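Task: sequence in, structure out. Protein: HTH-type transcriptional regulator MalR.
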Amino acid sequence: MKQEEIARELGLSKSTVSRALSGKGRIGRETRIRIQNFIREQDAGEKEDTQAKTETRTLGVVFPNDIYANGHPYFLECLLGICETTSLLDYNVMITVGTAQDISGIRKMVEQKKVDGVLLTRSLEDDKALRYLLEAKCPVGVTGLCEYGEVIQADIDNEGAAESLISLLIGKGFRKFALVVDNLSFHVNRSRYNGFYNAILKSGLQKENQAFYMGKFQKDLCDSVIQDMMAKKVECVVCGDDILCSQMFSRIQSKGYRIPRDIAVASLYNSSLLDSFLPLVTAVNSSARTVGNVIGKQMIQFLQGREYQKKTMIDYEILMRKSTERR
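Result:
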């Protein structure tokens, strides 16, 4: 602000303002303090105006690209939860898609200053997107867990849930399991894998006696895995998520096997995808919408300089159903 403008606003002469700012010449103490306080107030107001102009009140939400291939009710429910929170708190959402290697959509949002913070809906080991956002000093949250303490995290206790489910199945008399997941570079699958084997080892069962399968489970791979499980006399197949469970369940029944008489089936994540299968599927039940609510709220509270939680774990329940019934 120019000296002439200050003088005009305060009803003083330009020379009086000049003496107050330079510290030279005679000027009353009260007048000097009045001028200094006015300048500080103006500087603070300009800073607030600058912040208001750069604030977008928009959160970026990043989905994995395989959401288009499989639908993934988890991610859709999570988005609904985020949108519910942002709507209530007068924020907007901008969506982009990323892969383990392609983060161009994220870069565009950040570098063009389109968002105030970014929410990743899948957490990866050695996560390129997460590293980029931290280096860019962009506020970031994850619907999952990661090793960075400064990242806001909201997740289901997937390790604990997997351990609880397998422990219950062991209590029902199952001894020979197969675990099926698509990719262990996803933190969620790594957590479920750890929980599965925690239950196996704590129960006194031998890890090497259990079967483990990983890959992109299209029809041919599913059929090959089912054949191998039957040859190994697997009693219960535990699927990493609802997508895998729906694929395995369909292929097992198409082969003429009876669930659970010939082989039992359970899922480490429940969704509406499994509602159409009979017998009803034993599964871990939890709310992806709640995960979205929480991560959205904690991010906005952080952006507003309010108290927030860096890590929140969401409750789950085990649904024991007829797909794992023992006869």
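Residues 20 and 29 are 9 Å apart (CA to CA).
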